[in-house]
């Protein structure tokens, strides 16, 4: 599973160029899950290009609101369903940092979303927390938002260390593998039906380093920011995932 998070980037021109470059490099493979979370305003535009090129790419949103009605600027779970989005990112560290989102809000959002699309819940520690060996503690707290949820096979967790996002720094392959196993164990043990979630890695993934992560036993894919803005880079990452050991 490879997800592009375009954040607040792009234009119609950029999107057209992106797809021209992507389709040139991309070799499709059955069973692969590729998703794009564009800025909401471009969702229909992206959807049209995907259909025109008969591409197997799922669409999702970068966030949602837990309520609807008088919530200027927000989008609701019902709208996500209405627009046939397959997934939504929830709890991204930029939402936590710049929009002051707390675990309680993230929990409400996931509970709304679970019936309509796949939540991709982002968790991860700051650099300070990492230095103080608090990574597992912080992640356990962030995973508490899943308590009481009947999530069947839908839930996906993205491990995104805050200090690795957009910085060019990453944990080692071994560190990532260890945290991913930890996340799977925690979610499985708290899940009503003992479900083991898919866990994606996110934070400075690019076409050079991706293969290394993809070979790891507990890495089920990636959530990609910066490198996903280039259609040909993204195609190479997707192809590299298809070609790796799983
Ligand atoms: P990055 O962002 O790939 O630019 O580090 C990842 C993310 O924020 O999801």
Explain this structure to me?
This protein has an eight-stranded parallel β-barrel, surrounded by five helices. The radius of gyration is 17 Å and the shape is globular. Helix 8 links the parallel strand 6 and strand 7. The chain is built from ten helices and eight strands. With 246 residues, the chain is of the alpha/beta class. The protein has a single domain, classed as TIM Barrel, CATH 3.20.20.70. The longest helix is centred in the C-terminal third of the chain and has 18 residues. The protein binds 2-phosphoglycolic acid (PGA). The site of 2-phosphoglycolic acid has 13 residues, from strand 8.
What small molecules accompany the polymer chains?
2-phosphoglycolic acid
Order of helices and strands: EHEHEHEHHEHHEHEHEH
What is the fold-level CATH name, i.e. the topology?
A: TIM Barrel
Sum up the overall morphology in one term: globular
Corresponding CATH architecture: Alpha-Beta Barrel
Ends apart, CA distance between termini: 11 Å
Uncertain runs with pLDDT below 50, 5 residues or more?
Answer: none
Give the proportion of residues in helices: 25-40%
Give the domain tally.
1
Name the CATH class.
Alpha Beta
Rg over alpha carbons: 17 Å
Query: How many β-strand stretches?
Result: 8
Instruction: Output the number of helix runs.
Output: 10
State the assembly state of the protein chains: single chain
On the 0 to 100 scale, the average pLDDT is 94
Largest sheet strand order: 1-2-3-4-5-6-7-8
* CATH homologous superfamily classification: Aldolase class I
Strand percentage: 5-15%
Q: Let me know the largest β-sheet.
A: 8 strands, parallel, barrel
């Amino acid at each position: 599973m490879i997800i592009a998070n375009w954040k607040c980037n792009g234009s119609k021109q950029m999107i057209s160029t992106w797809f021209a470059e992507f389709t040139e490099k991309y070799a499709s493979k059955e069973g692969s899950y590729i998703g794009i979370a564009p800025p909401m305003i471009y969702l229909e535009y992206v959807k049209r290009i995907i259909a025109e090129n008969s591409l197997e790419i799922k669409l999702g949103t970068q966030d949602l609101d837990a309520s609807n009605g008088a919530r200027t600027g927000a989008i609701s779970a019902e709208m996500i369903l209405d627009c046939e989005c397959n997934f939504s990112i929830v709890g991204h560290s930029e939402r936590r940092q710049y929009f002051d989102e707390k675990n309680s809000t993230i929990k409400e959002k996931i509970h709304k979303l679970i019936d309509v699309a796949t939540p991709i819940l982002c968790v991860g520690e700051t650099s300070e927390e990492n230095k103080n060996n608090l990574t597992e503690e912080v992640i356990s707290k962030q995973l508490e938002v899943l308590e009481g949820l009947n999530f069947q096979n839908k839930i996906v967790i993205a491990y995104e260390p805050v200090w690795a996002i957009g910085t060019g720094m990453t944990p080692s392959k071994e560190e990532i593998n260890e945290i991913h196993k930890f996340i799977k164990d925690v979610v499985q043990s708290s899940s009503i039906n003992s479900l083991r979630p898919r866990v994606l890695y996110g934070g400075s993934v690019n076409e050079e380093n991706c293969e290394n992560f993809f070979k790891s036993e507990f890495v089920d894919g990636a959530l990609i920011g910066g490198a996903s803005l280039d259609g040909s880079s993204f195609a190479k990452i997707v192809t590299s995932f298809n070609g790796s050991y799983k």
